[in-house]
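Postdoc handover notes: sequence design on the structure in folder B. Input C-alpha cells:
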C-alpha cells in the first residue's frame, strides 16, 4: 500500500488545517482539541506506515500485482498463550478512570498500579542476566 502513509499524512495535514480554521471561527475548546487529536492520530498512523514501508525496502506483499496469499506468510510475532497480566492492566486503567470521578487519591494509587502492571506485562518473558545471581 504505497499510498497508505501519504493518505494518512494528508489526513493529518487536513485535520491540522481544520483545527486552526475552527479556532479562528470561534469554536469551543473541546472541538478544537478533538480535531487536533484526530490530526495527531492520523499523523501517528502515517508515521507507522512510512516507517514500516521504509524498513521493508518499499516492497510490501500487497503491492505485488502477481502476488499470492502465501507471499505474506511468516511469523507475525509472539503472543502469550496464558498471560494473566492483561487483567491487572485493565483493572488499573478502570480504577484510574473511576479515580477521575471519585477522587485524585484513587487516580494516583491506580497510576502506580498501572505502571507496575504494564511493566509486568511487558517484561513477563524477560530472563534475568547471569551476572545478577
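Designed sequence:
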Amino acid at each position: 500500500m504505497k499510498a497508505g502513509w501519504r493518505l494518512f499524512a494528508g489526513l493529518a495535514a487536513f485535520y491540522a488545517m481544520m483545527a486552526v480554521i475552527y479556532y479562528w471561527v470561534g469554536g469551543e475548546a473541546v472541538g478544537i482539541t478533538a480535531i487536533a487529536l484526530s490530526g495527531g492520530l492520523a499523523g501517528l498512523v502515517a508515521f507507522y506506515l512510512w516507517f514500516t514501508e521504509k524498513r521493508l525496502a518499499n516492497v510490501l506483499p500487497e503491492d505485488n500485482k502477481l502476488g499470492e496469499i502465501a507471499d505474506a506468510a511468516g511469523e507475525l510475532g509472539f503472543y502469550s498463550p496464558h498471560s494473566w497480566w492483561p487483567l491487572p492492566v485493565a483493572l488499573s486503567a478502570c480504577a484510574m478512570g473511576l479515580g477521575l470521578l471519585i477522587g485524585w487519591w484513587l487516580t494516583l494509587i491506580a497510576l502506580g498500579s498501572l505502571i507496575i502492571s504494564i511493566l509486568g506485562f511487558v517484561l513477563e518473558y524477560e530472563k534475568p542476566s547471569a551476572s545478577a545471581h
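Context for whoever picks this up: The radius of gyration is 22 Å. Don't rerun without checking with the PI first.
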